[in-house]
Write a structure and sequence with these properties.
The chain is an alpha/beta fold and 208 residues long. It is built from 8 helices and 5 strands. Strand 1 and strand 2 form a beta hairpin. The longest helix is centred in the last third of the chain and has 24 residues. It is elongated, with a radius of gyration of 18 Å. The N and C termini lie far apart (49 Å).
Length: 208
């Protein structure tokens, strides 16, 4: 593993007397389609899961393998999402915060402290801290990033079975050329985020 103190933030929280420290991350803020996911993970004090890293630094195969290992070895975990309708109603940032809040509040073991990836914390009742690039600095946040990413990717693969012409299994809802081309050809589905397509429609002279 990299020369990083993966437990710096967890150990600090434990030293301050917190018992159940969870790491929290989201996946899917940027795509044109699908919910935004979030996960919360509580590890045992001092626990390091070999191979865990920021999900973006891992191959899909490695993430899939670690997804099962994390769920087996973590003290507690929870994966939640905010829907496309919620994204459209409250915007993507607030929807990501909502998914994180649900992930923390749905843990089987209540967390008393949360380490949140990014620069903003969700509206939860327990003390928490935002850590920029937390998924590359904290073991529990990195584990959460893997759970959120894999869970979301698996859902998009299922979407591909319903809408094979869009290629969701390849781009996972992100704005690739092939995805934009499919939207031009077939239109948008109920899985798409209309607010994310406004500029694209304007650019192509499409009125909605």
């Amino acid at each position: 593993m990299e020369n990083i103190d993966w437990l710096e933030f967890e150990n600090k929280a434990h030293a301050e007397g917190y018992q159940s420290v969870c790491g929290v991350d989201e996946a899917g803020r940027g795509p044109l389609a699908g919910p935004v996911f979030a996960a919360a993970v509580i590890l045992r004090p001092g626990q390091v899961i070999e191979g865990v890293n920021d999900s973006k630094k891992l191959t899909e195969k490695k993430r899939e393998k670690l997804f099962d290992i994390i769920r087996e070895e973590a003290l507690a975990y929870n994966i939640e999402c905010a829907t496309v309708a919620e994204i459209e109603e409250i915007n993507i940032l607030n929807a990501a915060m909502l998914a994180m809040k649900r992930a923390v509040e749905g843990l089987d073991i209540p967390a008393d402290y949360a380490i949140i990836d990014g620069n903003k914390t969700p509206p939860i009742e327990i003390p928490c801290e935002a850590v920029v690039k937390g998924d590359a600095r904290s073991m529990s946040v990195a584990a959460a990033s893997i759970l959120a990413k894999v869970a979301r990717d698996r859902l998009l693969v299922r979407y591909a079975e319903k809408y094979p012409e869009y290629g969701f299994e390849k781009h996972k809802g992100y704005g690739t050329k092939a995805h934009y081309d499919a939207i031009l050809r077939y239109g948008e589905t109920e899985l798409h985020r209309p607010s994310f397509l406004k500029k694209f429609y304007e650019k192509n002279g499409i009125t909605k």
